[in-house]
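User: Show me a protein chain along with its predicted structure.
Assistant: Here is one chain, sequence first, then structure tokens.
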Amino acid sequence: MVMQSQTSVRQASILFAIFCAIYFFELASFPLSIDEELAAFRTDASVWVAQGRWGAYLIETFIMPQPILPFITPAIFGVGCVVAYLLVMDMIGQSELSLTEYACFAIFCGFPTWFFIVEFYSNIAAVGIAFAFMTFAVWLAIHQNGSKPILQFCCAIAAGAFAFSIYQSLAPAMLTMGIAIAVLRALRGSEESFPKNLVRIGFLLIGSLMLYAVGLIAFKAFITLKSEYFDSLLQPAVLLQQPLMVASRAFTAMADTIGLREHGYGATLWAIPPLLALGGAAIFFGLSRQRMVLTAAAAVSLLVPFGLHLVSAGNMPMRSLVGVPIAIWLFTYAAVDSRHSKLRVPARVMLMAALFQILVIQNSYQASSYLAGKHDALLAASVQQRLSLAPGFDPKITYALSTFGSRPFTTVYPRPDNSTVGHSFFEWDGGNPWRIASYMRLLGFTNLTGATPEQVDQTIVRLATLPVWPAPGSVQIDGSIALVRLGETPSYANQQALKRAGNR
């Protein structure tokens, strides 16, 4: 027992070291992303209930009331990934990890889709906890050999429901993981049948969703906030009206995600498609029986994460694809662990190439985020300095910030369309004064707040005539309102304010 514990600690330490190597920048620095400037000042976590994430509400209310913290938030995600991977290894009967298992962990926790969640401090710690709970639920469902199987399965459902309450995209990820475990157990000659394992996962998924829904109803009975963004995601009617368009968008998203196109990540990931092909071949030739069923199931596991695209008009953010790393890991692990050297050797070569490409993508994003952060800090200081030199400035007044247009950040490093990576606080939402003011307050410039709609309407005509930043006169004061014209093109909010001014 002592030897087992020592082995587990050693394996967990090595896995966490691998995680640290992949996400070193996130652990060693403090790169702020869009939305974190608002979350840092949030005192009421009810916004999570409005998005259906009552588990995230509990975590932020009672465990981490200030989630915008360096190191600890990505570290918690890393611990969640390590726990999940060790549970997965136990489910497939791999008690001693070799170099193969360690290398595949880099895919499991470092596949680029994860980065689009890791960049958000407000989400990542809770998602790491949820990922561990989701995997634990699958582990409990698969290991139904205890003296109290019904109680154990109820615990599995409770763990799954809690995971979904933190991040609903873990529901398709649970199905993906269940299929992956069932396939690998069958390849390793498990005594339990492949269909039996799938049935367990199916009941687990249904039960967890039902319990999650009960919890959501209970929380919404007390918290009645709504989220326009979250409510706008689900558009199932579009699938019935334009099925070809939705299917095309889902296929494009899949092509972007698995490396068939460079658009998704802004960089190449050509080693993943060969790994998928080699993994599919390894599964097909791994057994003489059930080969067609297992290969088809593996293919389905790759499609499941994109199921949400079918009910969202094909427009789900890439960060929602938490099941993709699990599916990619399934194919990769099957290939590099194959008994056939003609599949195993090229798969290991492709795995090394894929890991290098993933590191390049991760570091490119980190470079983009770092430079965007430098740009924004310097721009915030410049705006503050211009404001202090503007006629009429009073250091005792807290000014309402009213902006016109945006100030984009340009860089040679990738800025993925479906992410905030490399984007400026001064350009998001077309130049949102509330975001900009909150960001500047976070930097210590505390004499700014966002302008009210009435204040915007009051100053929009004058704003539209100011010179564009950084020209002299692009920052002015109008009573208690600070006017900043950041760009030539008006944002949507600016356009609406100009229309209201024209109708007076």
